[in-house]
Write a structure and sequence with these properties.
With about 375 residues, this protein is of the alpha+beta class. The chain is about 20% helix and about 25% strand. It has 6 helices and 20 strands. Helix 2 packs across helix 6.
Length: about 375
């Protein structure tokens, strides 16, 4: 359903505030909407969302709420999650090439509510734009709860973005054994990735830059289809889609902690036991960390893999990267090896395993000195 016929009937009442029929409508540029994640603000009235876990908070009055989204035609369409006043998740699917107003909730108590909106889908499902909020006639938007002071950023692959996290009961089994997955009932949910759970445990705002199939180098891994693209190209991008690469403005947001979990997909075309491949991989990883350090001079960097089954040689390569950084004088870099690194589910990490990783990572980050110091 296109929003265009509706918006043609809209009567402007104030900047960013309108009416759709009898309902109050507020466009996405309203400052009271609290955004998080690598979100494109080239058009503040229609911000773009590219990564799982990105989203916003909205506080509203009344008994109902609807949200306007425009989905592009690059992927399979995105799934979103909504939680109102801490409720269980409400899900909504955005059809490719759709531009619609989605009714999220009705029959709420006639009072003030806070809703968390987040992208369940990872980068593989393309981009969508958020356009505005419709609520009961005469009702208003308020200011959401205070933004967390702590900030943490993740770079990684499908484990970081929560692929198959909702495959409950399939721990220890291959992904192709999962019998409940289809487009209309996806098991991908970045909300339940170890990254998002660790951020919530730490009370931190997170940027979860997880990309399914990502390797360190271009021309390796599985991300990008015919144009395989690695972390060396995506780490500084807003949009990681090879045909739509767009730069990220690092000045917009500075984390206290950066977690990089890479090495799961690198064995496709590299041998971690080959000296030539090892040195090339370490060299590129060091360049990425050095570049990120130039943007985040005071942040802690935690380098790791995950518990997804992989050759332990990759953990040793990550350890070597951290060691060389510290030898160069960078004292705020650490290697972390999960207790079950490389020995978990042969498919993607399930919810219980993501929770296990989140708890371990949270304890480790909590042990770092002065980790939440001011980064400004």
């Amino acid at each position: 359903m296109s929003l265009l016929p509706l918006l043609l009937t809209v009567a402007m009442q104030a900047p960013s505030a309108y009416r759709i029929g009898d309902r109050a409508y507020f466009d996405a540029s309203l400052p009271r909407l609290q955004y998080f994640g690598r979100i494109g603000m080239e058009d503040p009235s229609a911000p773009s969302f590219h990564y799982g876990g990105s989203g916003f908070k909205v506080k509203f009055e009344g008994t109902s709420i609807a949200l306007a989204f425009e989905e592009d035609d690059w992927g399979r369409g995105n799934w979103l999650g909504f939680r109102i006043d801490g409720s269980p998740e409400i899900r909504q699917y955005l059809e490719p090439k759709s531009d619609a107003l989605y009714q999220i909730a009705v029959g709420l108590e006639d009072t003030e509510h806070e809703m968390l909106v987040y992208r369940r889908s990872d980068a593989v499902d393309g981009m969508f734009r958020f356009k505005g909020v419709a609520i009961d006639p005469g009702k208003r938007l308020g200011w959401p709860s205070r933004r967390p002071r702590k900030r943490i950023e993740f770079f990684g692959d499908s484990v970081t973005s929560g692929v198959h996290a909702e495959a409950v009961g399939y721990e220890g089994k291959e992904d192709d054994e999962i019998g409940t997955n289809n487009l209309r009932e996806p098991l991908v949910n970045t909300y339940w990735s170890y990254a998002s759970m660790a951020a919530r445990m730490l009370g931190a705002e997170a940027h979860v830059n997880g990309i399914g199939g990502l390797a360190l180098h271009d021309e390796n891994g599985w991300w990008g289809g015919s144009t395989l693209t690695g972390l060396e190209t995506t780490y500084d991008k807003l949009s990681p889609i090879p045909s739509r690469l767009a730069p990220w403005d690092f000045s917009r947001w500075t984390p206290h902690v950066v977690v990089i979990a890479i090495g799961q997909n690198d064995g496709r075309f590299l041998d971690p036991k080959s000296d030539l491949d090892r040195q090339r991989w370490i060299g590129t990883y060091l360049q990425i960390v050095e570049s990120l350090r130039s943007h985040y001079p005071k942040a802690w960097f935690v380098l790791s893999t995950t518990i997804l089954i992989h050759d332990p040689a990759w953990d040793e390569l990550v350890r070597e990267v951290a060691h060389r950084r510290r030898q160069s004088g960078d004292r705020r870099v650490a290697f972390y090896r999960y207790r079950r690194a490389g020995t978990g589910t042969p498919g993607h990490a399930r919810l219980t395993e993501n929770r296990e990783m989140a708890a371990e990572l949270t304890r480790f980050i909590g042990s770092l000195p002065a980790v939440w110091q001011n980064t400004e």
